[in-house]
Automatic annotation (TrEMBL), chain B:
Domain Pus10-like C-terminal stretches: 289-520
The name this protein goes by in its record: tRNA pseudouridine synthase Pus10
GO molecular function: metal ion binding; primary miRNA binding; tRNA pseudouridine(55) synthase activity
Classification via Pfam families: Pus10_C, Pus10_N_euk
Residues spanning the signal sequence: none
Amino acid sequence: MATEPEAAEPVVPSLVDRYFTRWYKADVKGKPCEDHCILQHSNRICVITLAGSHPVLQSGKTIKSISYQISTNCSRLQNKGAQFLTELAPLCKIYCSDGEEYTISSCVRGRLMEVNENILHKPSILQEKPSTEGYIAVVLPKFEESKSITEGLLTQKQYEEIIVKRINATTATS
Amino acid sequence: MFPLTEENKHVARLLFNTGTCPRCIFRFCGVDFHAPYKLPYEELLNELRKFLKTGKDELILEVPNPPPKKIRLQELEDRNDNMNQNGEGRLSVIEDGSIASKNSNLNVCNVCLGILQEFCEKDFIKKVCQKVEASGFEFTNLVLSVSFPPQLSVREHAAWLLVKQEMGKQSLSLGRNDIVQLKEAYKWITHPLFSEELGVPIDGKSLFEVSVVFAHPETVEDCHFLGTICPDCFKPAKNKQSVFTRMAVMKALNKIKEEDFCKQFPCPPNSPKAVCTVLEIECAHGAVFVAGRYNKYSRNLPQTPWIIDGERKLESSVEELISDHLLTVFKAESFNFSSSGREDVDVRTLGNGRPFAIELVNPHRVHFTSQEIKELQQKINKSSNKIQVRDLQLVTREAIGHMKEGEEEKTKTYSALVWTNKAIQKKDIEFLNDIKDLKIDQKTPLRVLHRRPLAVRTRVIHFMEAHYVDAHHFRLYLKTQAGTYIKEFVHGDFGRTTPNIGSLMNVTADILELDVESVDVDWPPALDD
């Protein structure tokens, strides 16, 4: 299973390390291993990304196309009338060449600021750089909720524990 | 020389009998030269009485001695009382409006409510000047701003209608413009008194303003009938302020028909019991501007104070380190700091520095020699090694425009320490030197997206110069258009700035250090040393 390549001894903290806190949601909507990673900036902006354990990021998967589940009225480059999302709101659907479809959810409540059009044009970016260029969307939580939104999410450590549990469970059953 | 002539007599008598003071009588008789107004009140009263006492068929004006019992008089309160609180005089006036005894200069004028009686005379002016001197302002001239209660306009209007009617009997006309304005006459009298007392000229363009505000609580309701008759002249009140502003009252008076006015308001106006009160005497100096250029040598200093939830996150700030000294020396109330753009907390500003301008609000001290400004600059520079200033100088308000121009239009040069994930060689960065006027598209960086609208900005990187450091580092010098986000150009901001150094070199790049090398604005003018 391909996990997010963590530098064993980071010489320099990456851009994400410096400005963001990583939060996770595992098995989103009950679907096994459909893990999301929310990058929370110190200014409370959240970048929705796929966690390394997500099926789409596993070797052998090819993405056929991605489509955003947003009403056509939502103008992506204006703040006026931007959508307010709940945790379960779908952001986009990923269609793979093997017929599998995956829905990516917001995982945090907030205003949808932007969706990443780069992955529409070149879906492979999502797989090559899921934590940066391959992000899904940007969501801005309400000021009052900026701390509470992380209450339902897993820390890096908690996420790693879940991964370990899964591996053990798989090994046990195999 | 007494300015009234025979033809003024009817009007003068009418006004005098109905309780109008000599100076207001002059105004309504069109006396438009200063000298008569400046004579002392007592003298004017006597001269007026003499003037009116002629012939057989006029009213008896002389009050016999002893005064009839009907007249009750009371001296004005001791004028040494605090004028700010209560400048009222207390008087009683007989209902039929006959004049008081010549011992009293105490009828409160039914038109000016005392403004052209005691409030334009030396004693009051002296009181105001004492307050001005006590305020500690440094000034070489001043502008006087006086504010009268709106009901004065109503009374003026009533007196005008009265006089117009009287003159009509003699087939003479009287336009509003034939009457000398109250404020004008007031200034004729008081300006020389202020100048003499404070030793400076009155100048309409002066930055130093002395403002005196009068009120007359007793007659506040005089205006209210206008609100009923001309409601559209009065806008809803904001902040508990009265709807009856001077402007609104004037507008209504221009609109209202004469007959309607006379039905609602007595012509002549009745005599009040008290003179105006002095609501406030304030001094203020217009803002002065100081400009210069600053260098920033700390990677831990914000431009403005960084305070979250009342807690200061980082010690001090660029603006405080510069402005605090200016606040003290100029004895100003507050400051507004602006600069030609700004840098992040962790970015140094080298080279000639970044232009800034500071507006000092209500400064008490404003005159400085260039030597004194130089010393002030040295003082600022000695007090901190985090910032240094140069070219410190006094400038005009136009300074702020230069700041904005510099921020939006002028180029800047930077030096960045770049890290790459892949190992590089010298030849891998040489191509950067050949790129000229590179256009980049920058979406609003994630780090400011919480407070700026999402947009795409096209910017130009004019040229670059790359200096190899080691396998994972190089120094990049670049000259860019104003408003370019340098950090995002280096690390790409999740692919939202394109192209970026990473995409140009096909690596993952990050920025470790950033310095501003120059801000290409040739303002403020460079000073020697």
